[in-house]
Amino acid sequence: MTLIALAAFADNYIWMLHDGARALVVDPGDAAPVRAALDAMNLRLAGILVTHHHADHTGGVDALRAVLDGPVYGPATEHIPTPFVPLRGGDRIELLGLGFEVTDVPGHTAGHIAYRELGNETDPLLFCGDTLFSAGCGRLFEGTPAQMAASLAALATLPEATRVCCTHEYTLSNLRFAAAVEPANAAVAAHQAHCTALREAGSPTLPSTLALERRINPFLRCSEPAVIAAARREGAANDEPVAVFAALREWKNRFR
Ligand SMILES: [Zn+2]
Ligand SMILES: [Zn+2]
Fold first, then answer.
1. Is residue 62 annotated as a catalytic residue, yes or no?
2. Is residue 52 annotated as part of the catalytic site, yes or no?
3. pLDDT per residue over 81-96, tens digit each?
């Protein structure tokens, strides 16, 4: 299986997974880069996975139906282009011979879902849309801090080697925030240098891994003393992870 990040819009990635003959794509906000990749590699489109209803994740779905030989999967409780197979937490699907399990991850949107691969691979895939970003997390458009904190906690229980496939190239700006939260975190500084070089070379900083995110992502580190202390300075009501998370998210919203 080959994993490719197709660039779309200013900073989106449409993840494509293919076996040399058939492909699936995740959150095709734009059909054009998908069609170009299918044509260039002579692949058939065997399925589409959608994580949530925002247009930059769904805008290309209908235009791809002409070349789609398989299902569109999406969150049961959100309005995405129909027809689609509605999924909710705990559901399992199979595509390209791979199994995926659905996790409910409300917060960015109310019905956001994530797809994690169930195979025996040591580095399973996680397609998490706009919930978990490298060194950051999605904005709370429809959910509460408690919901998002629980969603991130659920993703954080996945294996360390999980490849985190998020939709946006926000890593460098997220790392600037992570460095403000934890100035003494050497892993953040090292990853900033690494990702700066990647971007200068025109390469994505993704996928990340869960092992790395546990070291650099302040939103997964809400129980770390340094993160708690920073959140308290920014107004966290107490040391509990949800209060710490809420203060970090508010701080990030106004961080420049
Ligand atoms: Zn979104
Ligand atoms: Zn998005």
1. no
2. yes
3. 999 999 999 999 999 9
